[in-house]
């Protein structure tokens, strides 16, 4: 309390609380310290690019289940709250790359902190990386999330796309699922039907009269349960 500016580590939706706690928590910090520069020095959530789920729910951070989809939700809610609160002097993502921590045994690799937006080997940018790219760059971007969730066992699925385009059209196996506009860089279609076998997912964004695309392939095989 003696410094001119302060910053706090906060992990709503990971170590404590829910992602939706961000707005109230930030407002409370500002109310408690109205005449000080308040910042967030750490925030984030862990994610394995090999773990996925459709109906994502908040995992135990010390468990071996860190689905990539939950990291997306945690970062979406954090940034949506932070970007509308100019009283914050900093918002520092924890962190850019997965890194080694000897005493950890969680996620899909022992001895690793998997809160990075990029994998330990610097080769794979996780979905959350593109969430910030959609928000922080003017270069046209269209990105299909959950793209590594390639083996599907449910006949219908949500499809979520990050983009800074004016509008995005979704196609599944060449058939249009409609065009959507978004103010928050998130475009989501629910209950999109998958065909048995290979499914081509294609997103087409439009911006300033030009189109930009992204595509991936998911395979659907009905669950035997």
Give the topology.
Blueprint: E1 5-9, H1 22-32, E2 37-43, H2 68-82, E3 88-93, E4 99-100, E5 112-113, H3 127-136, E6 142-144, E7 151-152, E8 156-163, E9 167-172, E10 175-180, E11 186-193, E12 197-207, E13 210-220
Parallel strand pairs: 1-2, 2-3, 7-13
Antiparallel strand pairs: 4-5, 6-8, 8-11, 9-10, 9-12, 12-13
Description:
This protein is α/β, with parallel strands linked by helices and 225 residues long. It has a 5-stranded mixed beta sheet, with no helix packed on it. Strands 1-2-3 form a 3-stranded parallel beta sheet, covered by helices on one side. It is globular. The model has no long low-confidence stretch (mean pLDDT 96).
Describe, in short, the structure shown.
The protein has 225 residues and is α/β, with parallel strands linked by helices. The chain is 16% helix and 34% strand.
List the secondary-structure elements in sequence, H or E. EHEHEEEHEEEEEEEE
Q: Please indicate the percent range of residues in DSSP E strands (runs of 2 or more).
A: 25-35%
Report the count of strand segments. 13
Count helical runs: 3
Return Rg in Å: 19 Å
Side-by-side strand order of the widest sheet? 7-13-12-9-10
Low-confidence stretches: none
Shape: globular
